Structures are given as C-alpha cells and as structure tokens.
Amino acid sequence: MELYLDTADVAAVKRLARILPLQGVTTNPSIVAKGGVPLWDVLPALQEALGGEGKLFAQVIAPQAEEMVKEAQQLFARVPGLVVKVPTTAEGLAAMKQLKILGIPTLGTAVYGAAQGLLAALAGAEYVAPYVNRLDAQGGDGIAMVQDLQQLLTLHAPHSKVLAASFRTPHQALSCLLAGCEAITLPLDVAEQLLGTPAVNAAIATFDKDWQGAFGSLTL
Ligand code: E4P
C-alpha cells in the first residue's frame, strides 16, 4: 500500500518521514494557501523533506480543460514524477484524457460519488481521490462510497488506484484500507492521532513505573 501525508508543512513532513513509511505528499490549493509558501517554492522543499525521494501531488487551478493541460505540463516539467491533481468535473475529465495521451500522470480529485470516480479512472487517471469526511459531513456515507468505488475500479479500471482522502479520524482511513484501497493520504492531525494513542502511552508509563520500582535506574 501507499501512505501519503496531505500537507504542505515542510517541517512536519521532515519529522514524520523519519517515523512513517511515507510514499510522498499530497497537496491541494487550500493546503498550499494555508502554508503561505508559493507552490514553486514549497514543492522542492517538500521533496527535500522526503529525503529527495517520494511522490508529490499538486493540483491545477484553471477551470477549463485546455488551461488545465497547460498547467499540468508546467507542473510536470518543473517537478519530474509529480502526479497532477485534476478536479473530476466535465472539463477535468477532458483534461485527464489529454494528459493520458501526453504521458502525464493524473489523479482525479474532488470525488463525492463512486460513478464520478469511475469516470476519472476511465479517463486515464492513475489515482482517484474520494473525499470521505467531506461526504460524511454532507450527510452521506463516505466509506460506503469508497467501497463501491474500489469495487468498480477492481472490475472495470484495474489500472487506477483509489487514493482515499479527506479524513478526520484514523478509523475512516482504516475503513478505506479494509475496503481494499491501495493508497491513503492523511492530514497531519490524523497521522498524529495514529501515533499518539493515549492507551499506548499509559501502558508504557506503567512499564516504566514497574521497572523503576523494582530496579531503580538500572538499564538493560
Ligand atoms: C485530496 O485530494 C484532498 O485535497 C484532501 O484530502 C481534502 O481533504 P479535506 O477534506 O481534509 O480538506
């Protein structure tokens, strides 16, 4: 499976790349805007934070297919290996088809329905990103949508991977993996929740207390 962080926080990527088996970093325009560092500066910094290896994802801004393709070519030329995120609109689907012909890898993003995700895969997207929590927040069922999407891709577009996104809890991310998704991207707070389970810390504190009670400062 592939694990990504959904952030443009360079320091956090550097810290977590030491701990987690990261394949890379995903971004979107809101994430980059929140970080305050322009895309052309933050992408090389993220690449360096990953140790010079790892896949980066950046999203086009333009609403029309022709401009999306131009932006994607620009991104891909500046950052070799980058996967271009394209919103799964009608224009986005047209752009994904053209980018497939040009050999530029894409991710169909902003996916709120299984059929929409399937269309991105059929248009040639290498990855499809369903928005789990955003759909839940609208009263939908994000996990059920991911289950349907994963099944559809397995049956009809096996070249394309679900890269499940938009999480508020580790449980949402794990449910996607159990549904068979090959990739997930975690926001920093969810990655931190996975690493900092209070019950684990409490268990370790008890081990320390018991050891010190019996042996004082004796080490192994
Ligand atoms: C992924 O493609 C999206 O950019 C991102 O994961 C959306 O997540 P959010 O709902 O936490 O903003």
UniProtKB/TrEMBL annotation:
**Keyword set, alphabetical order:** Cytoplasm, Schiff base
Q: Does the keyword Ribonucleoprotein apply?
A: no
GO molecular function (one): fructose 6-phosphate aldolase activity
Listed name of the protein: Fructose-6-phosphate aldolase
What is the reaction catalyzed?
beta-D-fructose 6-phosphate = dihydroxyacetone + D-glyceraldehyde 3-phosphate
One short Pfam name that applies is: TAL_FSA
- What domain of life? Bacteria
The Gene Ontology biological process annotation of the record reads: carbohydrate metabolic process; ketone catabolic process
What SUPFAM superfamilies does this protein's entry cite? Aldolase
Matching entries from NCBIfam families are given as: fsa_talC_mipB, PRK12653.1
Q: Name one GO cellular component term.
A: cytoplasm
Where is this gene product found?
Cytoplasm
